[in-house]
Amino acid sequence: MSKAHIPTYDICSLAMEKPASEDILVARFSDYLAAHPDIRFPHRHSFYHLAFFTGGAGSHTIDFERFPVKAGQLYFMIPGQVHSWFFEGKTEGYVVNVSAGFFTAFLQDAEYVERFPFFSGVSTEGVVQLPRQGIAAIVALFEKMLEEQRSAEFYNHDMMRLLMLEMFIQVSRVASKGKTRQDPPHSHVLLRNFRKLVEQHYMQLRLPKDYAALLYVTPNYLNAFCRDMLGKSAGEIIRDRVLLEAKRLLINADMSISAIAYQLSFADNSYFTKFFKKYAGVTPEEFRKNIS
């Protein structure tokens, strides 16, 4: 497989059994790796991707942030994120590939799953380390999902939905333990809406005041809110999204720096290069050379 571009996989293209489901795949990690040896290279998914490690070593990179693989780690990735891995020795655990629509026919609130903090699309927020005493309960849920996937019982997909939602809730509770405060629900709604707007408009809208207007708040309030919730200003969050997309595009060796600058709505190649060097620490050419 060429590494000059980032391939995007759908669930059926990574199927392991016939007939393939277009909505969900649950597999043991070792079986998944054996069936798809080339997916260690950078790639995207058109679905939600969950990886749970119960054993192994090495590293897992999500959107150019590298994490050491450890037992008890859960990785939650949303559609479009770029990831790759390099494992050392035998890797054990579970993989779940699930479509965005898997829950919509089951839940009245179509955005329910997006409320879980690990589905924010931010790499560091999508990695959860379970305490040793909590691993067995999550393993049991994955084993039940595997059993339901193999079964021909009525409502087996609904049972898998219930098991997965139980897992999301349990992991969310673990991830929130030790927090010194509990933010009010409306704060999470505003943050989620801001991030969704950035995802939709970062190519064209680069100023906090543009998003503040869409959210019916003042720019000062939006900046203060983002600093309180994330430790970053609204402008930094917008900038980080532009920088991430630049890195994703630079993997495609067939795309010129000028073409990337144009696609990202920079006035010229020079401005894009200065922007990238300032915030990535290297020029676009150096970044491309380092990842090739």
TrEMBL record:
SUPFAM superfamilies documented for this protein: Homeodomain-like, Regulatory protein AraC
Coiled coil: none
Superkingdom of origin organism: Bacteria
Family annotation (InterPro entries): AraC-bd, Homeodomain-like_sf, HTH-like, HTH_AraC, RmlC-like_jellyroll, Tscrpt_reg_AraC-type_HTH
GO terms, molecular function: DNA-binding transcription factor activity; sequence-specific DNA binding
Pfam family, one: AraC_binding
Keywords, alphabetical: DNA-binding, Transcription, Transcription regulation
Protein name as it appears in the record: Helix-turn-helix domain-containing protein
